[in-house]
Amino acid sequence: MNVTLRGRTRQILEGMVAEGYANTMSEAIRLAILNFGEDHIEEKLVEEKLDRIDKEIKEGKRKVLSEKQALGRYAKYVK
Fold first, then answer.
1. Which of the residues in the chain have pLDDT under 50?
2. pTM summary value
């Protein structure tokens, strides 16, 4: 596969090579794709975790504290 890169995209890849993050522009592209994939997977896992927490709260399996309860003795310092 051949890809032609111009402008900012090319500058970023050249910078990755110049700074030693990758040895070649092809390697820099592979790293960028892997990083994108990891970020996407992490985002999905966070969404799933938050959905589970919301479900547990609705089912009464998880207690939710008010702001005052969470702050405890420090609540008096918050305006």
1. none
2. 0.53
